[in-house]
Amino acid sequence: MKPVRKTSKARKRPTDYEGPEQIAFMLWLKVHYPWAEEVCIHVPNGGSRNKIEAAKLKKQGVKAGFPDLVFFLPRGEYHGLAIEFKATPPNDADVQTNQKEWLQRLTDQGYKAVVARGYDEIRQVFKDYISEPAPHVRKAVA
User: Fold this and answer.
1) Cis ω on the peptide bond leading into residue 67 (within 30° of 0)?
2) Are 93 and 19 in contact (CB under 8 A)?
3) pLDDT for res 29
4) Where are the domains of the chain?
5) Is the alpha carbon torsion for 60, 47, 34, 120 positive or negative?
């Protein structure tokens, strides 16, 4: 008789509600505001990584809790816009302590730093932000 093997149930991967909404926002941005999409970056801090890769990324400067999207686009009194994006409720996740700390740190440095929940809200946050007057900006020298 063969020994009984313990079989572990495969863990169900959590559903990514946030990713598809953020992709939809970036596509909308590219179509309607291509000049703003060009100065927007996504910082891929989230996701699962093995310990070696996580340690390597940390040494390279990855910071836990940094906002999902940053627009290097001054408006009004702000240097830029940083958005911590969450999926549309009820599928939104809680804002973690380190995310709140980053939003405050960026606010203290002159950025508009906010949480946006869902596709509709992130579009409104962006539209409200760009409605502020743009300061005089010098052209970069190559």
Assistant:
1) no
2) no
3) 98
4) 39-130
5) negative
The per-residue pLDDT for 8 is 63
SS3 10: coil
pLDDT for the residue numbered 41: 97
Put the strands of the sheet holding 81-86 in their side by side order.
40-42, 69-71, 81-86, 112-117
d(CA 67, CA 82): 6
pLDDT in the model for residue 136: 79
Dist. CA 36–CA 130, nearest whole Å: 9
The string of DSSP letters for 59-107 reads HHT--TT--SEEE---BTTBS-EEEEEEPSTTSPPPPPHHHHHHHHHHH
- What DSSP string runs through 103-131? HHHHHHTT-EEEEEESHHHHHHHHHHHHT
Q: Yes or no: is domain 39-130 CATH 2.102.10.10? A: no
Low-confidence spans in the chain with pLDDT less than 70:
1-11, 46-48, 142
